[in-house]
Amino acid sequence: MIRLMRAGDIDYGLLELPDLAEMTELLATVFSRFDPPAVAAGLSFKELLEIIRGYGKRAPHDGLTMIARCQSSSKLVGAMLTDDFASPPPEDLGYLLTSNFAPIVALLEDLDNRYRMVCPAPPGKILHLFMLGVDPDFGGRGIARTLVQLALDNGKRKGYEKAVTEATGNVSQHIFRGTGFVEQFRIPYHGFQFQGEFTFRSIVDHEAIILLERNLTID
């Protein structure tokens, strides 16, 4: 980790290569247990581990992903996997498209394409806050919000003009709105079909996946 700040017992900073495996495991654990589309689609920890490895392998070189580590235990307790919105999907995405993951990709592509129709995304202009996760034992300490804000500050320093995220549940939507993001598009879970199936109909406590945007040129 390239440490940027400390708050209490938590160090925050940019992800480096030695942190990658631990970040991947943390996000796979959190998303397999709590992410509404992942749970509804039946994505296992093992499947998510492979998916996040595919999407996260560029993160140490991009210099955009933030992590949080407990100083006393040295345990990684939070991560904000971040990339460029113009970045292509992983080269091995076809391999990652398990039957459980395919509907989620379709959902994300539908949402992102609606945004790209009105806001083209050249490289280096739009920051993509992709996967946010915090160890449940460290919840309620403001770690998620701090990770988001650090990612935004870092992106602004690198010349990004906007940031976007696809927030899948009530908690993440609240966090992103609290850091200045504004809703642009949404897709209700109950009405989304993939290959004739209502894959996300079982999601009842969360209304929709929402694409939110934050302008980084305005303080």
What is the topology?
Elements (H helix, E strand, L loop, with lengths): L1 E6 L2 E5 L5 H15 L1 H6 L3 H12 L2 H4 L3 E5 L5 E9 L8 H4 L5 H17 L7 E9 L8 H15 L4 E6 L2 H9 L3 E7 L19 E8 L4
Parallel strand pairs: 5-6
Antiparallel strand pairs: 1-2, 2-3, 3-4, 4-5, 6-8, 7-8
Shape, per Cα inertia axes: globular
CATH topology: Aminopeptidase
- Indicate how many domains the architecture comprises: 1
User: For this structure, what is the CATH class?
Assistant: Alpha Beta
Number of contiguous helices? 8
Let me know the average pLDDT.
94
- The proportion of residues forming helix, as a percent range, comes to 25-40%
**Lateral arrangement of strands in the main beta sheet:** 1-2-3-4-5-6-8-7
- The CATH architecture would be 3-Layer(aba) Sandwich
- Structural category is alpha+beta
Low-confidence stretches: none
User: How far is it from the N-terminal to the C-terminal residue, by CA?
Assistant: 27 Å
How many β-strands, per DSSP?
8
User: Beta-strand level of the residues, as a percent range?
Assistant: 25-35%
Looking at CATH, the homologous superfamily is Gcn5-related N-acetyltransferase (GNAT)
Over the alpha carbons, how many angstroms does the gyration radius reach? 16 Å
**Element-by-element helix/strand order:** EEHHHHEEHHEHEHEE
Biggest sheet layout: 8 strands, mixed
